[in-house]
Amino acid sequence: MKTPAAATITPLFVTEIYRADLSGEAGFEAFIEEIDDTCRAFADDDDAGHDWCEKNAYPGYTSYGSMSNLTQYAPVFAVLKKQLDAHVHAFAEVLEYDLGGKKLKLDNIWINILEPGGFHSGHIHPHSVISGTFYVAVPDKASALKFEDPRLMGFMNAPPRKTPHRRDHEIFAYEAPAAGTILMWESWLRHEVTMNQSDDVRISVSFNYGF
Ligand SMILES: [Fe+2]
User: Fold this and answer.
1) What's the domain range around 90?
2) CATH of residue 170
3) How far, in Å, is the centroid of ligand 1 from the Cα of 207?
4) Is residue 7 part of a domain?
5) Which of 46, 79, 190, 205 could be cross-linked to 148 through a Cys-Cys bond (beta carbons 3.0 to 4.6 Å apart)?
6) pLDDT for 1
7) Number of domains making up the chain
8) Name one Pfam family in it (predicted).
C-alpha cells in the first residue's frame, strides 16, 4: 500500500554504520601481506596472550589481554592507525559530535585470529566513543558482523516485519567484510561476531577511540 499523498515519513534516532575499503589504495597488496604476516607472527610468540585467551575461553588468539597498543610493537600498525585516524575523524563529522575542537584518540588496538567454529557473542565496548575493526583475512564463509537494534528491549508488542523488508527496518543487521574493509560504529551499539564457518582462520584488528 502507498503512503497517502498528504503524509510525510521522518526517520528519527538513526543508527549509523561506517564502512570503508582500503583494497583499492596504492600499495594495498604489500600492506595487507605485511599486516597478515605480523598478526600471525605475534600470535606465534605471544605466550601471555595465549594464557589470556585460555582463561577467557577465546576461540583462537587475541592480543586484547596482552598487547592492546599494537602501534608500539610494529610499524605496520602505525601505518594502519594513520588510516584509521582519518576515517574516525570523518565518521565523527558525520555523527556531528561536538568535540570542542579536540579529536577522538586511539585508546586500544588489538589482533583477533578467530579459529574455524569460533564466534564472539553480543557485546558493547564500554568507555569508548567509536569502535571498529579492520579486516585482514576473511576466507569464504568466515563470520559476518551482526549488529542489534539498540531499541530491541523496548519493542514489546511490535509485530514482526514482512519478508522481505527494508534494510533500515532490520532488527539484526549483518555486514560481511572482506580483506581491506574498515567497519566502525558507535561503541554503545551491541554487536557480535557470528560463527566462522570457513576452514581457515579469520584475522582482524579491532580498535577503540575515546574522547
Ligand atoms: Fe566488539
Assistant:
1) 18-210
2) 2.60.120.620
3) 9
4) no
5) 190
6) 63
7) 1
8) 2OG-FeII_Oxy_5
Q: At 101, which amino acid appears?
A: G
pLDDT at 3: 76
Mean pLDDT, the chain, integer: 95
Cell 581457515 sits on residue: 200
Query: For residue range 11-59, what is the model confidence (pLDDT) as tens digits?
Result: 999 999 999 999 999 999 999 999 999 999 999 999 999 999 999 999 9
Of 166, 173, 170, the residue nearest 155 (C-alpha): 170
Q: Which residues contact 61 (CB under 8 A, 6 or more apart)?
A: 43, 46, 49, 50, 53, 111, 112, 113
Specify the 3-state DSSP secondary structure of 119.
coil
Please give the distance, rounded to the nearest whole angstrom, from the Cα atom of residue 7 to the centre of ligand 1. 39
124 CA from centroid of ligand 1 (Å): 6
Nearest to 22 by CA among 157, 178, 193, 129: 178
> What's the rounded mean pLDDT across residues 73-89?
97
